[in-house]
Amino acid sequence: MWLFNSSPIKEVSPSVETLSVFLCGMASLQPLQLNFVGSGYAIRRFGYGPEAIGPFVGIVHAFQEFWCLVGMVCTTGVAQISGIPSVKRYKTYIMGTYSMVISALLALCNIRLLLLVGTSIGDSNITSYYWNLCLAGFLFGAYDGGVRSTSPENSVFYTLGQCLGGCCLTIFIVIMTKILTAMHAEMGYWMLYWQINFALAISFVSGILWNVVVIFNKFGPDRPKKGGNSNPDFLSVCGEGWPFMAMFSISLGSIFTVYPAVAPFQLLPLEKTQVILRVCLITDSVSASICTVLTKCCGMDKHWKNNHWYYYFIALLYIPFFTLMFTFIYVMHHPTGRLGKLIYMRPTVVFILTLIYFFSGRFTLQCGIGSLYANIKDTRGSGSSGGGNNVDTFLVLTGVVGMCVLLSTKFLFEGYMNAFRSAKAGLESGLPWPTEGLSGSKAFRYWLGCGVKGGLSMMGGVWTKDIRTQILH
Where are the transmembrane segments (predicted)? Predict the structure, then answer.
């Protein structure tokens, strides 16, 4: 059988592999971005008013993150099974086939979304639409680990594709808005229709390219390994990789707590926030591009402990990151205080501070995940049982840990924000502030308790057979 034959197989160009990984990153995030960018159109399509958009987006996003974690755990399990000595020789085939199946399922998920929107009568399909968006979260998590472990040297381009995907989608939406307006077409249906087609086209192209790369570059006889033939044990890999896992997990788990729920939404009127969101989307693409240039042209893809130790100073970006995080939360609670007067309802100040916060978080995240493989691939340890499988396992495990942190902070912060909004509404109607007269430590424990209770309640609420009861609650 040719698959296990030692005869030479013609490989595709490395640039094609890089392009396919880039497009895979772009395709994986499109259904998730459909929730943020397309839910307004979807809610109108299913016959609901603007007041249902916020609850729908929040519930879907929280559940997508949960299923993303499940997908990453699933990929970790497949990676571990493929590392068992009795099947280890087929590891490349197992992980390659697994990632190809996920790419096909991603395209099928987009087709299903298109059919649900196109054949919808009233709100009959909204619950199926909800569960398909949640399935996209699972596929995103599974695809992420599958592609990164199959082509680890191109991991930075996968991240770049994810970041530039949002920017490309924004440009596409701007163009389609002008076209549909000129045609006097119904904006709600046709914008959603073309956005799903955009995601479908990218998933088809990326899936075909990825299948070609896996079959011709990964399958076949063993090839010389790039980056040496080290055989590290798992503890050695963890020792070298934990700073990068920490950079990735801390940034991923922190950045989307304050952004955009607090900054800019709680600090500015709604009409002043849209520019900030669009510029942050561009900033994400810029930071990913800078990370890619540093990786490929400035040695960031080399072992940092050797001649590139200065890259560890990237962690200093956490100083403005966490300073601004707590500043935003403090100003949200004390808008009339001395610091609040300098920031609250000042568009220019909020714009600049939010960009600094967002760039610091995203850049450290991208550098952490982009440099991880470079710093663990040549690790040398005393053991020999794990081999290269331990490197692949740690790559996937990093995504799992990051998603666990993100999921925990997301539900905790959503519970806290719901309690804060309720307290603010009560204050406007004449009720006392819940932490009035409490010391700082007691007030902190109160809001933390609200976050835990509200987060657990929200986590239970996403398991619904009828999303209509949730968004109209």
Answer: 98-117, 129-145, 157-180, 192-216, 244-262, 309-331, 343-360, 394-413
201 class by beta-carbon count within 10 Å (0-12 exposed, 13-18 middle, 19+ buried) = middle
- Candidates 407, 400, 421; CA nearest to 455 is 407
Query: What local confidence, expressed as pLDDT, does residue 10 receive?
Result: 61
What angle is formed at CA 50 by the lines to CA 108 and CA 466, rounded to 5 degrees?
50
DSSP codes of every residue in 92-139: HHHHHHHHHHHHHHHHHHHHHHHHHHHT--TTTTHHHHHHHHHHHHHH
Q: Long-range contacts of range 73-77, CB-CB < 8 Å, 24 or more positions apart? A: 73/141, 73/400, 74/138, 74/141, 74/142, 75/141, 75/142, 75/144, 75/145, 75/146, 75/149, 75/396, 75/399, 76/145, 76/393, 76/396, 76/397, 76/400
Same domain, 238 and 195: no
| Whole-prediction pTM | 0.79
Question: CA angle at residue 27 from 24 to 28, to 5 degrees?
Answer: 85
pLDDT in tens, 120-154: 777 778 888 988 998 999 999 899 888 988 888 88
Token pair recorded at residue 264: 């800019």
3-class secondary structure, 270: helix
Share of the chain above pLDDT 70, in %: 90
Q: Is 111 a domain residue? A: yes
143 lies in the same domain as 279: no
| Helix then strand then coil, % of the chain, to nearest 5 | 80, 0, 20
Please give the pLDDT value at position 383: 41
Residues 174 and 236 in one domain: no
The answer as to whether 1 is a domain residue is no
User: Tokens 């603007």 correspond to what residue?
Assistant: 50
- Split at pLDDT 50, 70, 90, the class of 385 is very low
In this structure, what CATH number is given to the domain that contains residue 70?
Answer: 1.20.1250.20
- Report which of 318, 340, 316 is spatially closest to residue 329, judged by C-alpha positions: 340
CB atoms closer than 10 angstroms to residue 153: 16
Instruction: Give the total number of structural domains in the chain.
Output: 2
**Is 29 in a helix, a strand, or coil?**
helix
Q: What is the pLDDT of residue 329?
A: 93
Chain position carrying tokens 């997508």: 64
Domain that holds residue 366: 230-473
Same domain, 130 and 245: no
Judgement on whether residues 437 and 468 belong to the same structural domain of the protein: yes
Give the SS3 label for residue 273: coil
Residue 216 phi, psi (nearest 5): -95, -25
